[in-house]
Amino acid sequence: KYLGNHSFLQAMWLLVLLSYLNIANSTFEILHCNTIGPRNFGFSEFVLIYDASVICWSGQHLPWAIIAVLLAAFVIIPFPFYTGIAIRFPKLKPITDVYCSIYKDSQRYWVIWDLLRRIIIVMLGVFVINFILRHFFLLLA
Question: H-type helices in 32-103, by residue range?
Answer without folding.
Answer: 61-71, 79-88, 93-100
